[in-house]
Design goal:
The complex is a heterotrimer of chains A (about 650), B (about 180) and C (about 150). Chain A is α+β, with helices and mostly antiparallel strands. In chain A, about 60% of the residues lie in helices and about 10% in strands. Chain A has four domains: about 1-165, Four Helix Bundle (Hemerythrin (Met), subunit A), CATH 1.20.120; about 175-315 and about 340-420, no CATH class; about 420-505 and about 610-653, no CATH class; about 510-605, no CATH class. The radius of gyration of chain A is 27 Å and the shape is globular. In chain B, a hairpin with a 7-residue loop joins strand 1 and strand 2. Classes of the chains: A alpha+beta (about 650), B alpha/beta (about 180), C mainly alpha (about 150).
Chain lengths: ~650, ~180, ~150
């Protein structure tokens, strides 16, 4: 009964989404106020039914309803409650329902929180969101229904993939989807603007906090995934440039470009068509990511169960949504011109460089990820493009970007006014180089070229972000949230760069075999293996090793890495033993029992690695603070024409 | 007009991308073509599965075309193709040489006894060394070697009668196939 | 129906289980380091995107053994790569070789940066000229006081 109700709720949600789309778009074009208002009601209705459907699905999981095929596939009678709930989004069907629910949530938020927006524009935004919802819900209902019954019902389920039975990984998909789906808001704003043929840039101001919100969710989602991979997979890596990872990273990079571009468009009315294109592209990349993960086109550890039929549907959906938006763009963009000027070293110029480099980075990741497909299509053979390529390629736009960031954040709008700060920044740069050389030599013992480059870039950025807060010491209370958000986010990038440099240049990884009582040494830390014992968990049994770490004879910590064997079968899972600190991580993962008490294990020294995730979290926090800036909650004032003539006429239209 | 053309670039790029993705849907990214096609078959000389004191090797088949079939008792698809291999063996078109890969000798011998033996001889490769030389990455895989010792075709996945007729037989019957 | 379920079962079970080499490490730490680097650049062909260092698939173990033996024989990195690509093609290398068919791939990052920065420069110069010739354009604004 419950699954059928859920199914029914989903159908109602689809119908309401269609209503929302119709009333939103047709209502606006006909100027029918009743219709436009109806669209807002439809959004609320859609959301309610989506919540009902999702709630009923979760309920089916909690109640061990193995007559529902999806529950049987991804759950199990021994699964603890928390993971029964998170299993709801652990597989393809449920994750799609979550996508749809998130889309409904963002739509309802836009409807509720946009009081200052003119009704026709708002209706068009909701209309576009409605169309996207219709596509998604149709895909869910027709190809991936989570409420399908299993007849006869299974006696017990297969179990949730043990890899997913982890807190961070339970939260990772919802955060990611919030981000991916959140970019649909900027997308809808852009489409509404294009549909209306608007020449002003109010949309940019409305879109900015929404984009920041989506971006920060995506940042957290990606960070959780990276952190999880590090401690859960036993490999000690934090990023593999896997196609699905790349699929999440590309919208992030483009979202970063969008946030910065929106600033320019909002402030100076510049790059209107470019920013619109970025807004469309961000969400397009989100959809592309969905396609790549679920279609079987690329080989990935993350891919869901794949099916060409589903892939075809998503591709069709992608063509409809993105193709439609690009058609609008091609139609309207030529009319969007602006006359504003700016000087060579102005903020606008730096933001333009920011965009150019971020787009270059996105482009190279796209090319690298799809290159095997390109070559296959032209029958040029099969190749693999992996970390050795991306690790090098990605630095090419990134190093210049971070360097420019350190200067650009101080640039003024319109005019080149870096002059007074020039000496300070140069001085800080010199100091950064010296600090980098000192750190590499005396802390890590080896002056590694990329290490020096990385530390210089990171130190300089960190110092640069601190310049303004320090200079404006007394006036902190007058500084807007936007400023603090930006400063924090850029500081976060500095920490991130610090972490990446430390780990990539100075990490030590060893695969060794140790017998009981034997020791291995890494960077001055002695790892002594003390043997293993058996432990038991709620749905697994494990072998737990004990490794005592000392340094110069003084105890540092005791690590207890495990190898878990889940009751539902499958390969054993490694739970690494990690001693964490901001300065360095010490990492041990158990390998194989080699007999006679000897075990193979992976021992690692990872300097500064925690800064990677801390930096990312600070970026997200910065975005949150920036989005809370009071100015976004003020109604848009009519553009004050500072220059006579064309600007005034443009604004009035 | 010319100025407006550049606004078409995003749409054009997108169209190209969609084209590739469409291709990708019907393409298996994990099927790896063999770089050994057209090259001399790597030689091997291994213990016979049936009798450890005898050896089976590529030199035994010099001068005539033959098929090498990689299999193991642990491989469910190998079981599926076994019937087909028996039928092919009955036609006596070419000898089928088995390469028993990463397997247990006793299990493999029993398998052949129970299901039938389509092989002219079976080489026992528990270490997988010969398999690596032949670029084997999964089972079942089937190679066609021509009379002059060149690998002319490789099948990844289970053999079926139609594949045998459409892909292997024409190559066997062509001038280069037979000695 | 059952097959679909079995297939789903296979696909929901952990595909990526990371392995740790059970073999004895090389005595020479430089050799061991080289071994670890090599195995991290080679792809496990049966896995869903893992290196042979990280996969515990049988083929990955066999290939790791193969790399050890080749190293012990004194083969260079280049020779080891060639040994494997002769048998498995370029797919086995995570670092794509630089060949005519991959020129676009390797040139792309630098090219994209150059084109991007070039386009940005072109726009900046145009706008700076506009600002110089027409000071009013510098004033054009949509609001004030934003970061």
């Amino acid at each position: 009964m419950i699954p059928e109700l859920g199914h029914f709720a989903l159908i109602l949600a689809l119908l309401l989404a269609a209503t929302q789309a119709w009333f939103g778009l047709a209502g606006a074009s006909r100027g029918n106020v009743a219709w436009m208002r109806a669209a807002q009601t439809a959004v609320a209705g859609q959301w309610v039914f989506l919540l009902v459907a999702f709630g009923l699905l979760v309920w089916s999981f909690i109640q061990f309803d193995f007559s529902v095929r999806y529950v049987a596939m991804t759950s199990n009678s021994l699964l603890p409650l928390f993971y029964r709930i998170s299993a709801a989004w652990g597989g393809h069907e449920g994750s799609l329902l979550m996508w749809g629910t998130m889309l409904g949530t963002w739509s309802v938020a836009v409807a509720a929180l946009s009081r200052s927006m003119p009704l026709p524009f708002k209706s068009r935004v909701l209309g576009v969101l409605g169309l996207v919802s219709v596509g998604f819900l149709m895909f869910t209902l027709f190809t991936s229904n989570p409420f399908d019954r299993l007849v006869p019902a299974a006696a017990d389920g297969n179990d949730l993939n043990p890899l997913l039975q982890d807190f961070a990984l339970a939260i990772h998909p919802p955060m990611l989807y919030l981000g991916y789906v959140g970019f649909s808001v900027a997308f809808a704003f852009a489409c509404a603007t294009l549909i209306e043929g608007r020449l002003d840039v109010d949309w940019a101001r409305w879109a900015r906090p929404w984009t920041l919100a989506a971006w920060l969710c995506l940042t957290i989602g990606i960070t959780l995934g990276s952190w999880w991979a590090y401690y859960e997979l036993g490999w000690g890596g934090y990023w593999f440039w896997d196609p699905v990872e790349n699929a999440s990273f590309m919208p992030w990079l483009m979202g970063t470009a969008l946030i910065h571009s929106l600033a320019v468009t909002e402030k100076r009315g510049l790059f209107k068509s470019w920013t619109l294109l970025l807004a469309v592209s961000c969400f397009s990349l989100s959809l592309l990511g969905t396609f790549l993960v679920r279609s079987g086109v690329l080989v990935s550890v993350h891919a869901f169960a794949t099916d060409p039929a589903r892939g075809l549907f998503i591709l069709g959906f992608l063509v409809a949504v993105v193709g439609g938006a690009l058609a609008l763009y091609t139609w309207r963009a030529p009319a969007l011109k602006s006359e504003a000027g700016f000087e060579l070293l102005s903020r606008e110029a730096f933001l333009l460089f920011n965009n150019a480099l971020l787009i270059a980075a996105t482009g190279l990741i796209l090319i690298g990820t799809l290159y095997p497909l390109f070559m296959d299509a032209f029958e040029l053979g099969k190749i693999s493009v992996g970390p050795p390529y991306f690790g090098v390629a990605f630095l090419i736009p990134m190093v210049p970007l971070v360097l420019l960031m350190s200067v650009g954040m101080h640039a003024s709008w319109k005019r080149s006014r870096i002059g007074p700060l020039q000496n300070l920044l140069l001085g800080l740069f010199a100091a950064a180089v010296v600090a980098a050389l000192l750190v590499t030599k005396f802390v890590y013992g080896e002056v590694h070229f990329m290490g020096v480059v990385g530390f210089t870039v990171a130190f300089w950025l960190i110092a640069s972000t601190l310049v303004e807060p320090i200079q404006r010491w007394g006036a902190w209370r007058t500084l807007p949230a936007g400023f603090w958000g930006m400063t924090l986010a850029h500081f976060g990038i500095g920490l991130f760069a610090l972490g990446v440099t430390g780990v990539e240049s100075y990490r030590i990884e060893r695969d060794i075999s140790l017998g009981v009582g034997e020791t291995t040494t890494l960077q001055g830390y002695d790892f002594r293996f003390e043997g293993t014992r058996e432990v038991r968990g709620p749905n697994y049994q494990a072998v737990e090793g004990t490794v005592v770490i000392t340094r110069d004879g003084r105890p540092v910590t005791t690590l207890r890495p495990q190898k878990r064997y889940y009751a539902s079968g499958g390969n054993p899972m490694t739970e690494a033993g990690i001693r964490a600190s901001l300065r360095r991580d010490l990492f041990v993962a158990l390998g194989e029992d080699l007999g006679a008490g000897k075990w193979s294990m992976r021992v690692q020294y990872k300097p500064l690695i925690r800064n990677i995730w801390l930096g990312a979290l600070l970026m997200a926090l910065g975005a949150l603070i920036a989005a809370s800036d009071r100015r976004y909650r003020q109604p848009v004032r009519a553009a004050v024409p500072k220059a006579a003539g064309r600007m005034a006429r443009e604004g009035a239209r | 007009m010319k100025r407006n053309l550049r606004f078409l670039i995003p749409a054009a790029l997108f169209a190209a991308l969609v084209g590739f993705l469409f291709f990708g849907l019907y393409n298996d990214p994990r099927e790896i073509p063999s770089p050994l096609i057209g090259k001399p078959a790597p030689s091997f000389s291994l213990e016979s599965l049936a009798n450890p004191s005898r050896r089976v090797g590529t030199t035994d088949y010099q001068g005539r075309p033959y098929v090498v079939n990689v299999w193991g008792t642990w491989c469910p698809e190998c079981r599926r193709e076994h019937e087909v291999l028996l039928s092919i063996a009955r036609t006596r078109a070419v000898p089928i040489v088995g390469l028993n890969w990463k397997d247990d000798r006793a299990l493999a011998q029993r398998w052949l006894k129970e299901l039938g033996d389509p092989y002219d001889a079976v080489a026992f490769d528990p270490e997988g060394q010969a398999a690596i030389d032949w670029g084997v990455y999964g089972a079942p895989e089937t190679f066609l070697v021509s009379a002059d010792g060149t690998i002319v075709h490789k099948l990844i996945g289970p053999m079926t009668w139609s594949i045998w007729q459409e892909e292997f037989l024409p190559l066997i019957n062509s001038p280069g196939g037979r000695s | 129906m059952m097959r679909a379920l079995l297939l789903a079962l296979l696909l929901t079970l952990p595909a990526a289980v990371f392995a740790i080499d059970a073999e004895q490490a090389f005595e020479d730490p430089a050799m061991q380091e080289r071994y670890e680097r090599l195995t991290r650049e080679l792809r496990c062909l049966v896995c869903q995107n893992q290196t042979i260092a990280d996969s515990n698939a049988t083929l990955a173990q066999d290939l790791r053994r193969e790399v050890r033996e080749l190293m012990a024989e004194g083969k260079s990195d280049q020779e080891i790569h060639e040994f494997l690509t002769a048998r498995y093609g370029d797919f086995v290398l995570y670092n794509p070789p630089v060949k005519p068919r991959t020129y676009v791939l390797w040139a792309a990052p630098a090219l994209l940066v150059i084109i991007g920065l070039g386009a940005a420069m072109a726009v900046i110069i145009r706008r700076a000229r506009a600002a110089r010739d027409n000071p009013d354009s510098l004033e054009a604004d949509n609001e004030t006081g934003t970061p």
